[in-house]
């Protein structure tokens, strides 16, 4: 790859359902965050290739009691990011509650509390449009059949320009059942261009689908359609669902995802142009590109969302999210480096999938080695802490305090269909209550666990194949737990979290 080109994916981790907007010389991106907190990640770029994570727009999910425990496939689905009236706006659908929006004067906030714009089951993937020519505002959304019994159609509304209220009951403006061969139409993004209303919307399912474009002279239709991006003879399955953005010089680009199993939905960047017939042409005449000329934008130093963390003062970086709304005192600030996690008491300590107090970040999409140092400070029998790979199956390696007060190195796993963890290797003593933990992630998200308790790294257990949740890629996790009971159960300290190419 030359300095003048880039390779896809540009974000090689689970930044699901991306949407993008340009403000001046800056580009911003958000993505689905489902049931994790904080939610609505905010990424920044100057060249559309190198991205950094600058914050989140949603501190906690609401209503708070609904997300006090993990709901991995619920919460924030497919947000849309826009800039209007000198404010940033994000609209998203919670499939169990309805359409929400938040807004802020700056990308780093302060963001408003979530406003429920339309209540209802199965309302997903909303996108607003402010028509600069007429001053009118619109909203389009899709449907989740799992909640509403309805799918494969897009509904349009007029909206108050302040984004607080919809002005009608809504009308189906695109019915995918009427289009031969189309199914699972969803994820619409709404634009105005060249006198047309445009809806960019995917169909066909996340693993095998395609990107469609629809146009109409009036917002409520009728719309004509075209497939503008599909796999063809490439190895990029299901390239779709994302956003169009134009650079200051007038270049057009499209960002979308590719479903990659345990790695989640990674983000690709496609060149885009408008053909002589007025329709958009994405990628290489409708096929995704693997490598391409960079956008004609000022050169930027290489950048990517952070992964490593020294946890200065006990604080963790923006890349970390809890698996549900956080509780008080789960992470304690202090004067040194290292993440001090309280051993949260739980009757579900045997099943990490049910615990809100797991601190997670995205699984890298390329072969990597993950390392962290751990000290178990708790004297509570049964207290444990460790490093996990978390999906609908999980595996972890870490330390546990025995009933005889000794600390053991333990390695455990759970299959997707099981409800309790099992030993993946024989426990062994961990002198001093310390260990270095390591997970090597190879092709196919196959994970090899190892540990060092003072004698160098030793392998542990068989290979574990990471698995996704229903809509979410696998996660790396740090946790500290204790059995249910009274009183404080102590803490564990993690230091020097590192992710390095393998």
Automatic annotation (TrEMBL):
Keywords: Glycosidase, Hydrolase. Signal peptide: none annotated. Pfam families: GH43_C2, Glyco_hydro_43. Residues 309-499 form the Beta-xylosidase C-terminal Concanavalin A-like domain. Residues 291-312 are annotated as: Disordered. Transmembrane segments: none annotated. InterPro entries: ConA-like_dom_sf (IPR013320), GH43_C2 (IPR041542), Glyco_hydro_43 (IPR006710), Glyco_hydro_beta-prop_sf (IPR023296), Glycosyl_Hydrlase_43 (IPR051795). Belongs to the glycosyl hydrolase 43 family. This is Beta-xylosidase.
């Amino acid at each position: 790859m030359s300095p003048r080109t880039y390779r896809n994916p540009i974000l090689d981790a689970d930044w699901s359902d991306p949407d993008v907007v340009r403000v001046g010389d800056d580009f911003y991106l958000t993505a689905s965050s489902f049931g994790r907190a904080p939610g609505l990640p905010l990424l920044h770029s100057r060249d559309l290739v190198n991205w950094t994570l600058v914050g989140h727009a949603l501190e906690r999910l609401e209503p708070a009691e609904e997300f006090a425990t993990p709901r991995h496939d619920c919460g924030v689905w497919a947000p849309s990011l826009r800039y209007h009236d000198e404010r940033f706006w994000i609209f998203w659908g919670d499939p169990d509650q309805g359409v929400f929006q938040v807004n802020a004067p700056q990308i780093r906030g302060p963001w408003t509390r979530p406003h429920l714009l339309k209540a209802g089951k199965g309302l997903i993937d909303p996108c607003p449009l402010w028509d600069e020519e007429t001053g009118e505002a619109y909203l389009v959304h899709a449907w989740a059949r799992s909640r509403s019994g309805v799918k494969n159609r897009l509904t349009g509304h007029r909206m108050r320009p302040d984004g607080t209220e919809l002005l009608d009951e809504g009308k189906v403006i695109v019915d995918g059942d009427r289009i031969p061969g189309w199914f699972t139409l969803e994820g619409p993004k709404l634009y105005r261009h060249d006198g047309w209303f445009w809806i960019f919307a995917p169909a066909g399912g996340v693993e095998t689908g395609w990107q469609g474009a629809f146009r109409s002279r009036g917002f409520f239709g009728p719309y004509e359609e075209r497939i503008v991006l599909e796999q063809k003879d490439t190895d990029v399955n299901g390239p779709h669902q994302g956003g169009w953005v134009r650079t200051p010089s007038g270049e057009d680009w499209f960002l979308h995802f590719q479903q990659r199993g345990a790695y989640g939905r990674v983000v690709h960047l496609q060149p885009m142009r408008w053909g002589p017939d007025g329709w958009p042409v994405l990628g290489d005449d409708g096929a995704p590109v693997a490598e391409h000329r960079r956008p004609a934008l000022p050169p930027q130093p290489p950048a990517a969302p952070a992964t490593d963390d020294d946890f200065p003062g006990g604080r963790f970086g923006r890349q970390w999210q809890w698996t549900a709304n956080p509780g008080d005192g789960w992470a304690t600030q202090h004067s040194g480096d290292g993440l001090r996690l309280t051993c949260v008491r739980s009757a579900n300590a045997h099943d990490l999938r049910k615990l809100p107090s797991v601190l997670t970040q995205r699984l890298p999409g390329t072969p990597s080695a993950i390392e962290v140092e751990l000290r178990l400070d708790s004297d509570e029998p049964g207290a444990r802490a460790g490093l996990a790979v978390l999906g609908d199956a999980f595996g972890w390696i870490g330390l546990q305090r025995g009933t005889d007060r000794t600390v053991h190195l333990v390695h455990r796993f759970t299959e997707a269909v099981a409800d309790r963890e099992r030993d993946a290797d024989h426990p062994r003593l961990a002198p001093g209550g310390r260990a270095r933990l390591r997970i090597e992630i190879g092709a196919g998200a196959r994970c090899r666990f190892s540990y060092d308790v003072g004698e160098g790294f030793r392998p542990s257990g068989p290979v574990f194949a990471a698995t996704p949740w229903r809509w979410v890629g696998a996660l790396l996790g740090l946790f500290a737990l204790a059995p249910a009971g009274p009183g404080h159960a102590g803490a564990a300290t993690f230091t020097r979290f590192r992710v390095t190419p393998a």
